Amino acid sequence: MVFNRMTTSWFGMERVLESIEHHKYIGLIGIDLSEWKNGLSTGFREEGFNWVNWLALSMGRGDIWFGDVVSSHLWLYAAIPNSLREEESEAYLRGLARRVREAIVAETGSVYKEASQSPRLRERGIGYARLQAWQSGTESVKDIVYEGVLKATGQIRESLDDQDEWELRYELDRLLSESSIKSVYQPIMRLGDGRVFGYEALTRCPEGSLFDGPLSLFQFAERHNMAFALDRLAREKAIRHCPTLSSIQKIFINVTMGIINDPHFVSGQTLRWLNERGLYPGQVVFELTERSSIDDFDAAKKILAHYRSQGYEIAIDDAGAGYSSLQSIVELSPDYIKVDRSLVRMADKDEMKKHMLRTFVRFAKKMNIRTVAEGIERPEELRLLRAMGFDYAQGYLIGRPSEYPAAAIIGAIPKV
């Protein structure tokens, strides 16, 4: 099916130029019309179909404008409210694109209506992009629109060519726009007196999510350049919903060096979240995880020194699980070493593991680094680690991750 161009200007550029004067932020929406083929209403397929009137009648709003129909793709422009952040703008445009698509589907017949009811199909064949800040001159505006067309076209192609990947991308967008991930908290016990030293915040997907767990979620976000948006939301959830802490208790939050290297990582917003909960930077420990390696340790030291100067502390997670974590300990001199569960599991029955654990403790004490043993599930493991001189312990024996950990651990910390 071939659609003729409906305007004489390039992608309806004259409408963009008219709108710039009245709207600070504008988005571009693309919808693939070829998906419905002959099921598309006859009127839509007529040369010279009046999309402007159809939009006014079907959508009943004045903030969406017809741009063009090019190569079976309908292109629209939409005003974006000034109050929306960039990630919120993407969700806003996605919602508008869905509504336009649903209006088109409503005129294609019952078979298409029924198919469109699946949440995973409602965004098939749509793309959207927030057009970047306008510069002076028509040529620069054309470049901005061109970049938007490339992004939206890529989304359309992705949704049609790789359904599984597209469904996961849609799911990630949904989780971000609805802020539907949650944080659970696992207690960390001080081995000296058995008191709760703090909690590690762990991200969880909502029930029924297409992602089978937080690891696959974060890996997917990293592949699709959305790791920062996901990390920001996870950090917000971790801080805003964390258990009530005393002035000496800590909240441990997982991050990667790729994220912590971003200049906006610890922004004023993060400090506001802390202030809302009556917390301060000295109560936050950033756990550097194994999800991404550190290529430049000199640069990493400078970055971490900057955050430490603000009061934040640093932990190396999964120590002993691989070479990179051991190198990170030597190069970065963290405040905490979290020893991986693989070394802790059944350590009371394994002489090699005992030797490695003692080595960690001796090294850490010489370097004034505190040690946390992860993955403790048996009383025998807890007794061994306490005898070796570990500072803190974490694991199912002490408390499982929970949204409300205070209730979960009352009377549950074993006295061994």
From TrEMBL:
<feature type="domain" description="EAL">
    <location>
        <begin position="165"/>
        <end position="415"/>
    </location>
</feature>
<dbReference type="GO" id="GO:0071111">
    <property type="term" value="F:cyclic-guanylate-specific phosphodiesterase activity"/>
</dbReference>
<dbReference type="InterPro" id="IPR001633">
    <property type="entry name" value="EAL_dom"/>
</dbReference>
<dbReference type="InterPro" id="IPR050706">
    <property type="entry name" value="Cyclic-di-GMP_PDE-like"/>
</dbReference>
<dbReference type="Pfam" id="PF00563">
    <property type="entry name" value="EAL"/>
</dbReference>
<dbReference type="InterPro" id="IPR035919">
    <property type="entry name" value="EAL_sf"/>
</dbReference>
<protein>
    <submittedName>
        <fullName>EAL domain-containing protein</fullName>
    </submittedName>
</protein>
